[in-house]
């Protein structure tokens, strides 16, 4: 099974370990993984801020970039995405929702991209969703002694309908105990540009989430979206909360190493 | 409608500092969320929501048929219909009825539309005592405030605050037992009901088929305000019309559950006109004021579905933004997620340019909406409309350059490298102050993922 790895821009630049872990886990599960190097950003920040024209151009770029594996240095190869057999997988419910749900809306008037964006969306998967629905979660086994809570990202949860998938995966890690957060479907307050447009509200929401997290007594807050974690961890460090924040791919990679 | 909604950015900053307010709201809204969830365990929410959405879609897309049908039927039932295109016209008509009937005291039950047209201050200014008879509205009126929630107007107040307010305004002893406070309000209001010459109410649904106005409530005050008076005026929005009486079977199961977590409200009144010659009681006149005030402008636009709203308040209760800033921050009688749509759409985007942005787009509002309004997607499309009109030069510049960078992978990569270099000087925090004033910025790694990938040195 061949996977074209999609890495959100902020993960690429700020959290490379999340992408490395995603790649390792997918290879561990038997996928052939390539990283199309012309990919940049899905365009969601522009879209969610109302800048649809800018977002549209980025969406077109990203579709083109992801459908072509074009390696310049590592292994000089080129290949095109096979719409019937290949998959695009990314460690972010939010960016995948942008590509699967919003690209077709954004590109509906473009004769070249309207159909393509729909077909493209059907081949794009969020990481935990891909493992559950395509690979089969039973293929994964890990071991890690720790207590974690899981934070559902709103886009993963409500746009993609991902709820049990990450929990199924955590359940495959021996020694790992999951303690659910109270009100685990309430937003953490990140919301993209919302976090800097209304920082007081955004961090008030983070504080509620962090209070609930502290109450669970867990060591790590795990999520399948790094953007929520970046916001929560940033607020936690500022307010003196010491626990760890980690993407589920990182936990999985640790559990198999 | 005042222009306060323009000042959301100032208003929310003030409200969010109020710890007491946030604690009151958090308690009340989370309790409402839990009760709602509980009450939907025994019925199929998705099925009912889809049915309700279908009925609303039909009613609103054929409003030009159903509204005249309702008017016809209501007139046959003996009601007087007044179509008001603006707040001013609605207010003037209602004042005229009050003056003609020599009304000195008016009892009013809960109605968001009367808040929208600022009816009570208007009538009071003209020397007519107008008393709110819904307990929450009564509290807010005593405090000289505006409601902060669509269905629970005094949600921002704790019972201790209410006890103090009652003590100051109506001279009760200080006792924060809800039973005691309710009894005191009831005692005062009973006198008003007996003295009243006229009653004003809203309506939750108008039935085209029969000409009925439906009022749901829990306190019996609406029943009294509409039956123990000589003149009854119903004030409601034109979008409240639904085709058939039997459609109520869907809405009745959704409304109370969504709003208070009850299976059904304690009272459901069906009003079919003034007393007939055979009837011994009931009002002699029933007037129905149908308010447009910006509503019909949404017909045929992509925002038409906003008119489907049945004002249950569920989206407010689940909204974490609302929970932290409260209704007053929105500067509008319609707060929360639905308010962030209704306010700019009814009263002008220029009057609420920030409201559609005051959301993390988490989508919880859409998830609980009993008539299936895609609230957060509507907010998004309003954002687009606002950014096209509003010219923030800096923001436009930033987004244009962000796009330019993302279309050129080489430039993106170089900029990333440059940013990581700057980050090592410690200057980064000055560039993203709106982030770093509240949270730590993540530490920049030595290399981006693509650099690691290209070097092949990550495994």
User: Uncertain regions of chain B: pLDDT < 50 for 5+ in a row?
Assistant: none
**What is the overall shape of chain B?**
elongated
Largest beta sheet of chain A: what is the strand line-up? 2-1-5-6
Strand content of chain B: 5-15%
- What fraction of the residues of chain A are assigned to beta strands by DSSP? 15-25%
The poorly predicted ranges of chain A are none
The level of helicity of chain A is 40-55%
Order of helical and strand elements of chain A: EHHEHHEEEHHEHEHHEHHEHEH
Let me know the number of strands of chain A. 10
What is the multimeric organization of the chains shown? Answer: heterodimer
Secondary-structure-derived class of chain B? alpha/beta
Distance between the termini of chain B: 63 Å
Rg of chain B, Å, rounded: 26 Å
Indicate the mean pLDDT of chain B: 95
Biggest interface: A-B, 69 and 63 residues
Sheet of most strands of chain B: 6 strands, parallel
| Average pLDDT over all residues of chain A | 95
Span between termini of chain A: 22 Å
Main sheet strand line-up of chain B? 1-10-7-4-2-3
Shape of chain A: globular
Account of the 3D structure:
- The complex is a heterodimer of chains A (257) and B (459).
- With 257 residues, chain A is α/β, with parallel strands linked by helices.
- Chain A has 13 helices and ten strands.
- In chain A, the strands form three sheets. Chain A has a four-stranded parallel β-sheet, with helices on both faces. A four-stranded parallel β-sheet of chain A has the order 8-7-9-10, sandwiched between helices.
- The radius of gyration of chain A is 18 Å and the shape is globular.
- The model of chain A has no long low-confidence stretch (mean pLDDT 95).
- Chain B has 459 residues and is of the alpha/beta class.
- Chain B is built from 22 helices and ten strands.
- In chain B, the strands form two sheets. Chain B has a six-stranded parallel β-sheet with strand order 1-10-7-4-2-3, sandwiched between helices. Chain B has a four-stranded mixed β-sheet with strand order 8-5-6-9.
- The model of chain B has no long low-confidence stretch (mean pLDDT 95).
- At the A-B interface, helix 1, helix 2, helix 3, helix 4 and helix 8 of A face helix 1, helix 2, helix 14, helix 16 and helix 17 of B.
